[in-house]
Specification:
Strands 1-2-5-6-7-8-9-10 form an 8-stranded parallel β-barrel, surrounded by 4 helices. The chain has a 6-stranded antiparallel β-sheet with strand order 13-14-15-16-18-17. A two-stranded antiparallel sheet has the order 3-4. With 625 residues, it is an alpha/beta fold. Helices cover 36% and strands 15% of the residues. It has 2 domains: 174 residues, no CATH class; 404 residues, TIM Barrel (Alpha-Beta Barrel), CATH 3.20.20.
Length: 625
């Protein structure tokens, strides 16, 4: 910002100084407002202070053995953690009849992608057998013994979509087993110093989430095995939704008994349900994921206040454009919220994340069929030797991740099949001869740099080390958020005043008499909260109340030097003042936002001009002039 402040005042800067942009103005300057609103989309950026969690999962995920033995080597890749898995410590009999040993002294640098063999403990939580403690104890010891410097956000991966038979939501005994099993996974995560659990709800065998499919007779020729009519005889969709919601409460309660404050990442959650339910081709009954919404509602009800649920919008694996990611945000933050029966809990606990697959190409299936290449098509389309030719070139990956971090809530999940982040050259191999997928392809270190650059675009403050949540924003809002984004998390938000590029929105929801959110070119920069305290006067200032609130503010934010310094460094001010109507007004403001927006808008005006000049010069028509 110092560089910009030394410039000569620009046309935009001069316009912003005019009195027409003040709340005291009689009306907006329409010319200025029109120009700036056209440029608003260009000035949005990832806000400083957002907690960032970028993790990887998929076929190359290390088990807890390999992770603990090779933490330093794996941490060279700039992730915040991995989604590890628990290798069953006892020999198992596979479906083929052979005996198989999953847990090896070297560990494994590949996940066994089938749950029916019980090789991966996390893929057995919906089986009808209880996970014994002996199957998780070694994994806990692995994670406790690991020395992590970078990987502070590890997750345990589980699957719910591989049930051994038709799902019966009314089977109490089976659900008691499921809750026991997810509780065992939560114990590993908590005692193993993980951040939480990665839950894959995709259907790999019998349907869980579709009412029509649950109530159909099972058929081996169907693309997915269906349900059992007898389980749901006489049960309406509303009946089943209520039971699913109950199971969600039980599921979350089982997790919290072992892990009171987890982050629970879902590949798909209520956002995907909203996408299907709101599609006229499906609706609630036919939506394949329609019932995951009530399940999430139940989890929100049954979980602790410190539990976070992240909807990682797995359908976005190849999305790169702002409009696409904004649509995903609308799905999770607005459409799914509108369907929730517990909207307050949803606003508080549900976060937006994005899933990406490095080797993915949007049209890979069609191209694969044209070439006669069997799936997975990614195996031939991802070229590690020519990264710039991939759908996700290093530059595009960096730009996309920056956009995802800006629009989302700081969570990025990679799922990889062929692209193997742990191999950085054609000759790279796993450590100590540990099994890994021989068909996997290495990931050039230029992608490592793309990850690091994207992460560096956000000045991360972790939830553990952040001195105060005010560094990110007030309440559930974030500094620099748009009106639409604030409206997605603040109930009953209504337009209060507008003057030029300044707008104020107000809500009377909550403990305060009113909360006022103030925006500059659709960027939240100030929040003013008016409290009416007990026995306060209504016709004059409440000096006693003001002094009391000021003392509370001082105690909470100013007496701790770390907190006070962090707020000063972020240019966040807190002001307490009496209102003439007896209210006490606490105003929170992040300084510098207006200057940042001005600078970005000026650059947005200059860039097209420079781009046109370059384009004209590149025509090479000088000789013809």
């Amino acid at each position: 910002m110092q560089k910009n402040s030394e410039r000569k005042p620009t046309a935009i800067a001069l316009m912003l100084k005019s009195k027409c942009l003040s709340f005291s103005a009689r009306g907006p300057c329409l010319a200025v407002l029109t120009v700036l609103l056209m440029l608003a989309v260009a000035v949005q950026g990832a806000e400083p202070g957002k907690e960032v969690t970028i993790v990887t999962s998929g076929g190359h995920a290390p088990d807890t053995v390999y992770l603990s033995r090779n933490a330093a080597a794996l941490e060279r890749v700039p992730f915040d953690g991995v989604c590890t898995w628990i290798a069953t410590p006892t020999p198992i009999r596979r479906e083929s009849g052979e005996m198989y040993v999953t847990r090896l002294p070297s560990g494994r640098l590949m996940r066994i992608l089938t749950g029916e063999d019980t090789a991966d403990v996390g893929q057995t939580i919906v089986h009808r057998k209880r996970i014994p403690e002996a199957h998780i104890t070694p994994a806990i010891e692995d994670l406790k013994s690991a020395e992590f410097k970078r990987f502070k956000s590890n997750f345990i991966a589980v699957i719910t979509g591989n049930a051994p038979g038709p799902m019966n939501w009314y089977d109490d005994e089976w659900w008691a087993t499921i809750c026991h099993n997810i509780g065992m996974i939560a114990r590993v995560a908590k005692q193993g110093r993980c951040k939480g659990i990665l839950i894959d709800p995709e259907v790999y065998s019998y349907s869980w989430w579709g009412y029509d499919r649950l109530t159909e007779a099972q058929g081996p020729t169907k693309p997915y095995r269906r349900g059992n009519k007898e389980f749901y005889a006489g049960k309406s969709v509303e009946d089943v939704m209520a039971k699913v919601r109950q199971r969600g409460r039980e599921f979350a309660g089982a997790i919290n008994r072992e892990f009171p404050d987890p982050v629970l990442m879902f590949f798909h959650a209520a956002g995907y349900a909203a996408l299907q339910i709101n599609d006229p081709r499906w609706g609630l009954k036919a939506a394949g994921f329609g019932l995951i919404g009530p399940f999430i509602d139940g989890m929100l009800e049954g979980s602790s206040n410190k539990t976070v649920i992240v909807d990682c919008t797995s359908q976005a694996k190849w999305w790169t454009e702002r409009r696409q990611l904004a649509a995903a945000r609308k799905l999770v933050k607005q459409d799914a919220l509108a369907l929730s029966q517990v909207p307050e809990l949803y606003r508080k606990k549900v976060k937006l994340g994005f899933t990406y697959r490095l080797g993915y190409t949007p049209n890979e299936e069609a191209l694969g069929e044209q070439k006669g290449v069997p799936p997975p098509y990614e195996s031939w389309m991802y070229d590690p030797a020519s990264p710039e030719k991939n759908h996700f070139s290093p530059q595009k990956l960096e730009e996309t991740l920056k956009l995802a971090l800006e629009i989302g809530d700081g969570y990025i999940l990679f799922w990889n099949y062929r692209a193997n982040w742990w191999l950085d050259s054609p000759d790279a191999r796993s450590a100590d001869g540990a099994p890994f997928n021989k068909k996997s392809r290495y990931v050039s270190r230029v992608y490592w740099q793309a990850l690091a650059n994207a992460r560096a675009s956000v000045s991360s403050v972790s939830s553990v080390s952040a001195p105060t949540p005010l560094l990110e924003g007030y309440g559930d809002t974030k500094w620099r958020s748009s009106v639409e984004e604030v409206g997605a998390v603040v109930p009953e938000l209504k337009l209060g005043r507008q003057a030029g590029v300044f707008t104020q929105y107000v809500t009377t929801h909550g403990k305060a008499e009113r909360t006022m959110y103030q925006f500059f070119v659709d960027n939240l920069y100030r929040v003013a909260v008016a409290y009416r305290l007990p026995d306060a006067p209504t016709d004059r200032r409440d000096d006693v109340g003001t002094e009391t609130i000021q003392a509370m503010i001082n105690k909470k934010y100013m007496k701790n030097p770390e907190v006070a310094d962090a707020l000063a460094g972020a240019r966040i001010s807190i002001d307490v003042s009496p209102g003439s109507d007896g209210t006490v007004i606490v105003t929170y403001e992040m300084g510098g936002i207006m200057e940042e927006v001005q600078a970005k808008m000026q650059e947005a005006l200059e860039d097209p001009v420079e781009g046109r000049v370059e384009a004209i010069e590149s025509l090479d028509i000088e000789d013809e002039l």
